[in-house]
Structures are given as structure tokens and as C-alpha cells.
């Protein structure tokens, strides 16, 4: 199985740590959106898209990249995020990115999110929240998520 993870990790490296843990399991390279090669993505069995969450949304760099993907390229994908606050059930922050990918013809197999160190105001005044996150448990959860994806995609391929 060939996989690539496109990751925008700009504040504290939270999302990159999660992407690297998943990448080890999936034997996938982890690239920033500006480094991603569209031709390579079209040859992948699975592509991950992730970033930190800013004001309830994925990073604009990742959103622009996903918006630039060609229409109708039927590939399997997953999305992932780190956030200072938990993902609300009534308005999941992963849903809009999943919708854009699906509108472009991607089959989104799953989504993953976990807490991350956050120093956005007003949290900065208190030294941030979720210090030490993602931690060992979060990284293990990311690996387990990737193992399930690998098993599911490998069974289909």
C-alpha cells in the first residue's frame, strides 16, 4: 500500500507528531501542503490530510491545498486534527474538510482528532492548555487508528 500524509503543522508541532506516528505505521511520507506532489498523490492508495484547528477550522494552507485538488480523482483519504479544545459533537471541525474531499470524488475512510498544546489567546495568558499533549496515549491512539486504516485499505486493495 502506498500512502502519503499532507500535514500543516505550524504552531507547536502537535499535528506533525501525530502525522509522524501515523506515517510510521502506514510507511507514509509526511509532507507540507506546499511540498505535496499532485502526480504522486494520484498514485497513492491512501492520503491523509491534517492540521491543527484554528478558530474551529483546519489551517487555511491545508484548506487551500484540498480546494486545489482535481475533481473526480477517486482516491481513499482520511483526515486528522489536533486542537486545544475537544471536537464538538454538534459541529465537528473535521466535517467541512471531509465534505470538500468527497465533493472532489475522494472516499474518506475515517477521521482522527486529539488534544494538543494550545497557546491561542486567552490560553496564552495562563501559559497555554494541554501541556504535554499530544502525549504518549495520543500517539498510541494515532498509531492504532493508522493500523485500522492499513488493515481496512489493505483488505480492499
Would you count the extended β strands for me? 6
- Biggest sheet architecture: 6 strands, mixed
Q: Indicate the structural class.
A: alpha/beta
Helix percent reads 25-40%
Q: Name the CATH architecture.
A: 3-Layer(aba) Sandwich
Task: Give the uncertain stretches in residue-range form.
Answer: none
CATH class: Alpha Beta
Q: Enumerate how many helices there are, as a single number.
A: 5
CATH topology: Rossmann fold
Gyration radius, rounded: 15 Å
Write a concise synopsis of the structure shown.
Pfam families: Flavodoxin_5. The chain is of the alpha/beta class and 157 residues long.
Describe the structure.
- The protein is built from five helices and six strands; from the N terminus they run βαβαββαβαβα.
- It has helices spanning 14-26, 38-41, 60-67, 95-103, 136-156, and strands at 3-8, 29-31, 46-54, 57-58, 76-83, 107-115.
- The chain is of the alpha/beta class and 157 residues long.
- β5, α4 and β6 form a beta-alpha-beta unit.
- The model has no long low-confidence stretch (mean pLDDT 89).
- The protein is globular and about 45 Å long.
- It has one domain (3-156): Rossmann fold, CATH 3.40.50.
- Strands 1, 2, 3, 4, 5 and 6 form a six-stranded mixed β-sheet that branches.
Features:
5 helices, Flavodoxin family protein, 157 residues, 24% strand, 6-stranded mixed beta sheet, 6 strands, Rossmann fold, globular
